[in-house]
Structures are given as structure tokens and as C-alpha cells.
Amino acid sequence: MKDIYENAKRLMKGYCRVCRECDGVACAGEVPGMGGLGTASSFMANIKALKKIQFNMRLIHDVTDPVTSVSILGKQLSMPVIAAPIGGVSFNMGGLISEEDYIRSIIFGCREKGIIGCTGDGVPDFIHETGLSVVKAAKGHGIPFIKPWADKELFEKFEKVRQSKADIMGMDIDAAGLITLKKMGRPVTPKTVEKLTQIVKQASQKFILKGVMTVEDAKFAVEAGADAIVVSNHGGRVLDYTPGAATVLPAISAAVKGKITILADGGVRTGGDVLKLLALGADAVMIGRPFSVAAVGGLQNGVELYIDKIRTELEQAMVLTGVPSVDEVSGTILHKFQ
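Predicted structure:
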């Protein structure tokens, strides 16, 4: 991984510093790029929220070979990790690898390692078009995400998703405030519960709503018929001064656990972070920037090595907290402190 990180630092120069600790400090305000919006407080909040959480270390037990496999939305995954939807290599990552090479690395690297990756959406159109073509080449093994466009564009893209053979799709409603798209004549908007219900029905496949940060919105997602939510502040890239995902996850889980699949995304850097979010109530975890760095720095091989790294860390954390299976993670493994 060291060689991959060094290569990524060279290729992403001016867009991402590939810091030893990816915490949003050095890249604050660098959007486009890989930074957080404004002061990057929302990006940093994701990191800080996870850092505050400590484990109860337990070693008097019989857990030596923990089970990491899990079923999420009908997909059997080798571990509860999904590569988050990120696109726009040319203006966010330096453009020294192509959009197609980047997305192929994510989708096929994840497939090879038994998990699943997502594709993004945006302007120009080649972002989503490339993503959908790669998902189709992978025989539908990928989750395309579409932004909350106005009806005509939204439903046209839904049809393209169906043609890709993907059987799960998502909408990153947390992109609804991207004023730049409105200025380009491609408005994205928030959705009412009634509109969201129509959207879920129109999708006619398993549907993930990404960008849920309150109990109220989580309940609305359940009401609208979504199959899953992603507790996410869009990596801190759309609204300054939001809490971290790990901060709001417990209350959301308490409100809707069992009624809808709960994914969480924000600040995950290690397998230990994955285990923390599972203990806080997530069913699976999305990881964004680290996958991007691995893909730029090492293409598919980089993605596969990063997945191996996360799995090793997750297994180690499970052994050291006495967790036999990811289906049996509970909040008791977390240290409660005042």
C-alpha cells in the first residue's frame, strides 16, 4: 500500500495530498478537489466523531476466526463494506487516469474481493454514462447513484440504470444543494415525502436514499418505501457545520432499525472504524476517499489491496473485542465514558 499511496500522491498533486491522516485539515475548502466545503468542519466532524469512540478490549473468549460475511439488500458480501459513489476524476482527482479506468478499478476490484462498489453522477454526462457502462460490463455488479434531478432527467437516468442490469440503485439526496448544477441549467432539488414515494416506485428496484442525517428524515425514508438509507453528510462537501455521521447514527438506528437497511458513511479509514459504526447501529458501511486514493494510485490492484487491508483490520478488531460475527455486533463492545 505504501507504493500505491506514493503513486497516488504524485498523480493527485494539487487535488489531494494523500496525507498520512486523511482528516480534512490540509484540503479544507478545496472543492472541486477532495476536500470539505468551506471550513471543512463537516469533513472533520466525521473523523472526530469516530476518533472519540473507544473499544472495550476483551480476550477471554473463544473467538479466533470471526465471520465477516453478511447479506445486504439481497447481496452476499464478504464483509459489510461498500465503496461509496464518487466520480469526476478530471476535476476532483487530477485527471491523470481516465474516468473509465477509475470506475473499472472500483467496480471490478470490489467484485473480485466479494464486496460491491457504487458509481456516481454529475455533469458532464460522461460521469454517469461511464459508470453505467462499467456496471453493465460487470453484469450488473454495482450500485449506480443518481442525483436528485428534476423529474425528466431523473427518470431518464432511471431507465439507463435498468439497462445497466444493476438491481440496486441509489439517490444521493444530500447533493440537493449543489447550486453549481442549477447555474449550469441542471437543477437538483430536495424532495417531499410524496415525491420520494413516487421516485421509489418509479425506480422499480431496490432503492437506497443517501444523505439522511436526522431521525425525521430516516422515518420519512421508511414511509416513502426506500429499502435502505445512508447516514451521510456527503463527506462534508455540501454543507459546512454538520455533525459527523457517527454522532447521529445511534438515534437514527434506534428509530428505524429493522424497518430499513441502515448504511453509514463518513470518515471511515480502518477496519476498526467499520466495527465502530456497526456497533452504533449500521448494517454496513460505505467508504469514499480511501477507495479513490487506492484506485488512482494502483488501479484495480490498489483497490483489492485496500480491501484486504480493511478486512484484516476488521478481523483483528473483532477478535480483540470478542465479536464472533458481524451479525452479532452490539454496542457493548464500545467503552462508555463521561
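Summary: The two ends are 37 Å apart (CA to CA).
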